[in-house]
Amino acid sequence: MSFRHSSDDGLSPYGWDAQLDHSFADHRSKGLVPARVVGVDRGACDVITESGPLRARLALPATSDPLAFPCTGDWAALRPGAPPELVEVLPRSSAIVRSSASRSSHGQALAANVDMAVLAVSLGGPLNPGRVERLLALVWESGAQPVIVLTKADQSADPVGDADAVAELAPGVDIITTSATSGEGMDVLTAVLTGTVVLLGPSGAGKSTLGNALLGAETLETGAVREQDGKGRHTTVRRSLLPLPGGGVLIDTPGLRGIGLVDADEGLQQVFADIEELAQECRFGDCSHDSEPGCAVQDAIFSGDLSERRLDSYRKLQRENAWATSRSDARLRAQHDERKKWITRSLRETYAFRDRQSRS
């Protein structure tokens, strides 16, 4: 998706198009207006509407599922008033979802209706391959297109070698090397991005600096990185949504400490496509890639075409995802069973009432 805008285009700078407008016809007939969510906190949210920014109260049906709540990037139906009320979240074209910080069976949406995700990887410190693979699985599963942006290239002794190392972790993903100091790579990145773009990465990776370069202004707060460990503090404390000068929308997010996976089978298959392809050549269909004869994965490790670390990471993320998904499935089964019990109780009470009525 791509969109251009001028200062008087209403919601079009934020991604509203003819298709969305057509699908909103029924809501308009009920007196509701479209809005895009900028940020959510304390039972209310900041939104952009056709007439400008508003602070709206959440008036959604009661639910215990965090994924049903609005997040930055959502399109929503708003009931005008004092205060205005957000009454419905529209269907999402994509959503970047991680397992909740509480490690419950619920997922947590970080951003919605995202077309492209920029994964900021700093060259100012040691590369963390596992984190890159986790972020990629998260994005591929969402339906968005990932782009890896290597930041702080001026702090790397070998930026070309670093880019090659990252490329081994990210088959099929564009990798762009940038430097805020020199402006290197920014023209390439700007040309690649389109639609709604979200910035993802840990604190200290240079997301806000990168965002400011894309926005063409010092809009996002930046902070220093600790020298002893290369980590930054959370200068971005909430998600924000801002139109880009050349068209499109940028979502900035706080640094991610935890990147838990849930229901990310397809994302993992995409990230570890090299291992998935090798596994098709194994002698046995249920090969565990350990000590079985004719294992193409182990042969690749022996020949140096695949690292043991990458296989270990693949297995670790598969186990984590399976555990989180099983908890989610168990919760859904429990909810279904509870509803069946409630229906049964209601029917019994109804029949008992009718029986008493017939006797009186």
Automatic annotation (TrEMBL):
Residues 112-257 form the EngC GTPase domain. Keywords: Cytoplasm, GTP-binding, Hydrolase, Metal-binding, Nucleotide-binding, Ribosome biogenesis, RNA-binding, rRNA-binding, Zinc. Zn(2+) binds at C282, C287, H289, C295. Its EC number is 3.6.1.-. It comes from the Bacteria. Binds 1 zinc ion per subunit. Its cofactor is Zn(2+). This is Small ribosomal subunit biogenesis GTPase RsgA.
